[in-house]
Structure formats: C-alpha cells, structure tokens
Design brief:
Radius of gyration: 22 Å
Distance between the termini: 52 Å
CATH superfamily of the domain at 28-150: Immunoglobulins
Oligomer: single chain
Structural class: mainly beta
Order of helices and strands: HEEEEEEEEEEEE
CATH architecture of the domain at 28-150: Sandwich
Strand content: 25-35%
Number of strands: 12
Number of helices: 1
Largest sheet: 5 strands, antiparallel
Length: about 180
C-alpha cells in the first residue's frame, strides 16, 4: 500500500513539474493546410503566413504515400539540381520573408536535354536496399513557421564568420547537457 501511495504521489509530482515546464518548452508553430503538389506544376507556390515578422524557424514538410503508409520528408532552403542531367532530381526549395513562404518545385526547362524525372522525394533506385524505394512526383506539402518568442531563451549562441575556403566550422559549446534544438 505504501509503495502504491508513493508511486501515486511521485506521478502527481511529475505531472506538476510537466505543467510548470509548459511555458519553458517550444510553442506550437503556425501550420498551413496540406496542399497537393504534382511535379512540373507552375512554380513558385506562395503560402502567406500571419506572423508579420521574419520567422525564427521555417519547416517545409513533404508527405508521400507508399503502400498506404505516409512518410514525411523535409524541404530544403537550398538549390536543386538541374533537369539537364539524366538522373532523378527534385525536392522543394523555399525562401521566406515577413509575409510569406515561397515554395519552388521541379519544373521542365523546355530544352532539348530536358529530364522530366523530377519529383518531391527520392528514396533510391534499383541499387538501393532499404524499407522502400521510389520516386514521388505527387506529394502533399505544408509549411510550419515559428516566431522567436515561441522558443525558450537560448542556452548557447555563437556567431562565426563564414569563410568560403573552409567547408567545416567547428564550434565547441561548453554545456553538460545534450541540445534539444540546434539551429544554424
């Protein structure tokens, strides 16, 4: 009986700690609706957001379906490969400002060397061994954006100058705990 009472009190204590920490955790982002995309559709697609400030973090989610299972991939804030190569290419590249997120998707350049094998996710061809392989020319896409005030105060920040002649910059953080979130 005493052990059960101690366990019950311990769980109440943990619940109180959790409720107290709710204000220290990352708040929910603003979410757009899922939109259906197909490869070679007009690009870019603009998703307005209500923040009226530059987001502290933007995440573009690409949802594909394989064997009735949904899988989510990340969009990238960097460039795609050219469609002139014969290999699969694609993904979603995004840019944002204080009013909107623009999503750039694979398009056909219309040249003689055009490769229309562009999609939103690629999990490997015939030489790939894994849970599933495929190219996904149809996907659902949504955007998540956070304000700076949606995050707790940073425990560690560092500002480094980027030098184009160095490909890796190592920053040592002097903390004893593992990081919950690292943002570059």
């Amino acid at each position: 009986m005493k052990a059960a009472l101690r366990k019950f009190i311990f769980h109440i204590f943990l619940d109180l700690i959790y409720v107290g920490d709710l204000y220290l955790c990352i708040r929910s982002p603003w979410l757009s609706e899922w939109k259906n995309f197909t490869h070679l559709q007009p690009s870019p697609t603009t998703i307005p957001h209500p923040l009226n400030e530059y987001p502290a973090k933007v995440d573009v989610q690409i949802r594909v379906t394989e064997d009735s299972q949904q899988h989510i991939f990340s969009g990238f804030g960097s460039c795609q490969r050219d469609d002139g190569d014969s290999n699969p290419y694609g993904g979603i590249v995004y840019i944002y400002n204080d009013r909107e997120v623009k999503l750039y998707t694979p398009v056909d350049s219309g040249t003689l060397s055009t490769n229309t094998d562009g999609g939103f996710a690629f999990t490997g061809g015939n030489s790939f061994y894994g849970p599933f392989e495929g190219s996904y020319p149809i996907a659902d896409v949504r955007v998540r954006v956070w304000r700076m005030c949606d995050f707790p105060a940073a425990d560690f920040t560092s500002a480094n100058e980027h030098n184009v002649s160095v490909s890796v910059v190592v920053t040592i953080k002097r903390m004893r705990l593992l990081s919950d979130l690292i943002s570059l």
